[in-house]
Prior knowledge:
Elements: E1 6-15, E2 18-28, E3 33-37, H1 44-52, E4 59-64, E5 67-68, H2 71-74, E6 77-80, H3 92-102, H4 107-120, H5 136-148, E7 154-158, H6 166-181, E8 186-189, H7 193-199, E9 202-207, E10 210-215, H8 217-221, E11 226-231, E12 246-252, E13 255-260, H9 266-275, E14 281-285, H10 289-298
Parallel strand pairs: 3-8, 3-9, 6-7, 7-8
Antiparallel strand pairs: 1-2, 1-4, 4-5, 9-10, 11-13, 11-14, 12-13
Helix pairs in contact: 3-4
Adenosine-5'-triphosphate binds next to strand 2 and helix 1.
Amino acid sequence: MAAPTLTLEHLAKRYGDVVALEDVSFAVEPGEIFGFVGSNGAGKTTTMRIVLGVLAADSGEVRLGGRPVDLDVRRTIGYMPEERGLYPKMKVGSQLRYLAQLHGLSPTDARAAVERWTDRLGIADRLGDEVDALSLGNQQRVQLAAALVHDPLVLVLDEPFSGLDPVAVDVMSEVLVEKAATGVPVVFSSHQLDLVQRLCHRVGIIAGGRMSAVGTVDQLRAGGPVRLVVDAPLAPPGWAEGLPGVRTVATDGSRTLLDLDPDTDDQQVLTAALRTGPVHEFSRQTTSLTDLFREVVSA
Ligand SMILES: Nc1ncnc2c1ncn2[C@@H]1O[C@H](COP(=O)(O)OP(=O)(O)OP(=O)(O)O)[C@@H](O)[C@H]1O
Ligand SMILES: [Mg+2]
């Protein structure tokens, strides 16, 4: 079966008086890595649980390749739950084989897949250990193996990078990129925005249970201010005040950080800076996802 599009439409969920989700919609295309970001309590886990059908939405719908997510469809999803779902007293190897078979693999295929993924994730020597004898990061690796062993058509991972060391972060990143390259839609939540920016084709920012932005990082930047760094050592304080569409954000020695409204001509700034004397640096600073995130959640 070809990898399908994962579509979330108008999801809403309340817990008593708490509105956890309100009209959450987005789609993750085959081959796309979608980063799902938001502050603590914003609604990421709630959304992902609804996608997996482990939690029912009050309204709205999740479809995979046009089909509502029922038990059969759910078996094709590789899911990493936030609360982690391993049996602490079961051995790593037997647990992973069991999960793989539960998702439809034959015993032989299950064994091969478990070997492949535990090897890849650097836990092949822990197959005979009980899960709770492993460190937190290694338990996390087992959890990732559990999401991957059944060759899922979709990946839904709730904070897959938390607790991993830098080497495991690299392996995990490679795995997600590879999976996406085979056409699998990948959605994961994370608070590591540099990682999200590096890995994801598109990003969705959720705030207070509502999607406040969805798009590529470039699209999210568009419409926001352009930031300039100007190093003019002889410029008096406040030299950029009064230039139309320009705001001084900070000064750091002879360097000034300026925000320009969209469509403001940056050359007028350069001319003004040159009027004060030499200009040693004049550059645009690209807004990071972290900056964008701060802007969106504080709006
Ligand atoms: N079982 C529950 N009962 C009551 N409220 C809940 C329950 N689960 C979640 N909530 C509330 O729903 C909202 C969304 O929580 P959710 O766990 O989805 O956030 P999150 O984005 O995953 O946060 P984090 O980054 O901390 O993991 C929060 O206000 C939370 O308190
Ligand atoms: Mg969460």
